[in-house]
Amino acid sequence: MDQGKIVRLGFLGCGNIGGGVYHLLTDMHDEILRRDGLDIQIARALVKSIPEARTDVPAALLTESADDVLCDPSIDVVCEFMGGEHPAADFMEKALLCGKSVVTANKMALALNWHRLQTAADRTGAGLYYEASVGGVIPIIRSLTVSLEADEVDLVMGIVNGTTNYILTKMAQDGSSYGNVLREAQKLGLAEPDPTADVEGYDAAYKLSILSSIAFHTHVPLKSVYREGITAITADDIAYGREMGYTLKLLAIGKKKGNELEVRVHPTFLPASHPLSRVDGSLNAIFVHGKYCQDLTLQGRGAGDKPTASAICGDILYAATHKGCHTVPSFRNIEGASPEISFVENWQSRYFVRLDAADTPGVLSAVAQAFAERQISISSILQRPSEDGRAQIMLVTHEAKEKSVQAALAALDPASVKAQSVIRVES
Ligand code: HSE
Fold first, then answer.
1. Does ligand 1 have an atom closer than 6 angstroms to the CB of 268?
2. Topology of domain 5-129+314-321, per CATH?
3. Can you give the pTM of this predicted structure?
4. What is the predicted pLDDT for the residue at 1?
5. Could you tell me which of 135, 6, 4 has the C-alpha nearest to residue 77?
6. What mean pLDDT value characterizes the chain?
7. Which of 303, 309, 116 is closest to 203 using CA atoms?
8. Dihedral, 230, 236, 242, 243 alpha carbons, nearest 10
9. Ligand 1 close to Cβ of residue 143 (< 6 A)
10. Is residue 153 a contact partner of residue 144, using CB atoms and an 8 Å limit?
11. Does the domain formed by 149-301 have CATH 3.30.360.10?
């Protein structure tokens, strides 16, 4: 076999993802050499503690010093698998300033430091690649930056967090409470011991910041992303929503109308017929609408060592063959948001509202009046008896402004009607 071009990699971190990348590159080494003419060599791997490192990666590769990776002139591409913001972002910046291309799946470090990382990459002509940062193996970054580059995307809507999709799917299937399903998922290793980043929507918000920046060609800082997690969702919300024809998902939604952007992460009801409604368990999927491409759905594994390694290694091969020609998304990666863009906070949506109400004359009419006075039209309604002469009333509105719905609910007399849940509905 021909010798091929030697490409030396340095790993920052060698846990689950780093191990997955090590195994893919070992397994596929000869095939990649034959197909692509690249002799990929793993030169060094930074670990926290050599005695505690995984044993399936040769000990000779391991180091506890970041400089053994960052300052080794023979290393061409640095692969960051540390996670978290610091020191990952500083290490990536240093590698880029040394002219080494960087491949990362670290959505947090990227979303919070994108401008300075891209600036470092621009300074030396190194590449910054992050296909695995959103949706795991789903090739959404390259689809948006290459395949759809000529189009005008006005909507990205994704299930980009597998943990929460697993929890919501199990709650829907078993009628179990959020707390019970979370505990079960933690026992099975499907949810982190500290699940905050996933269940409070932070992970999805980092991903939406990246996704919407690329889709809309303008930097969308994390602080512009509205975020709400799934911790307040009940099995009743899911069950009553299903009776009304909806499926609940934690969605990352980016919409563009002219120079106005809406970027929000929150639990969302979708019609049961929507392509994202059928994406269950820990799967991820991203729905895109563009002026010319129209509707497009990409689905796949959003996490896991093998799928993530597949996306990362695609970036590694790209970095190895495109030095000095990195994937600059066609937007000005400035520090904040572009001045011409405004972020909508009082957005228009449909709403599912679950009310706990006294089952007595006039209660429903008072609810209808509070909505009517604020120009909110009700599209469907479901009432179910509950205990002690009370009822559960579920309403789905036509399109209404967020603040109008909040005002209507605040105007209800809490002695007879209390809002239990307000969940946005998309179509
Ligand atoms: N914690 C993420 C999830 C995986 O549950 O989808 C990595 O982004």
1. no
2. Rossmann fold (3.40.50)
3. 0.97
4. 63
5. 6
6. 96
7. 303
8. -160
9. no
10. yes
11. yes
* Cα-to-centroid distance, 161 and ligand 1 (Å): 5
Cα distance between residue 405 and residue 407, in whole Å: 5
Q: What's 348-425's CATH class? A: alpha beta
Whether 170 sits among the annotated catalytic residues: the reply is: no
Q: Is the CB of 190 under 6 A from ligand 1?
A: no
Marked catalytic residue, from 94, 207, 255, 256: 207
Region(s) of the chain under CATH 3.30.70.260: 348-425
How many angstroms separate the alpha carbon of residue 74 from the centre of ligand 1? 33
pLDDT reported for residue 246: 98
240/262 Cα distance (integer angstroms): 27
- Measuring from atom 7 of ligand 1, which residue has the nearest CA? 303
Residue 49, Cα to own-chain centre: how many angstroms? Answer: 30
User: Distance, CA 184 to ligand 1 centroid (Å)?
Assistant: 17
Instruction: Give pLDDT tens digits for 276-328.
Output: 999 999 999 999 999 999 999 999 999 999 999 999 999 999 999 986 655 66
Closest CA to ligand 1's atom 4: 303
The answer to whether the beta carbons of residues 203 and 136 sit under 8 Å apart is no
Which residues of the chain register pLDDT less than 70? 1, 323-329
Atom number, ligand 1, closest to the C-alpha of residue 105: 8
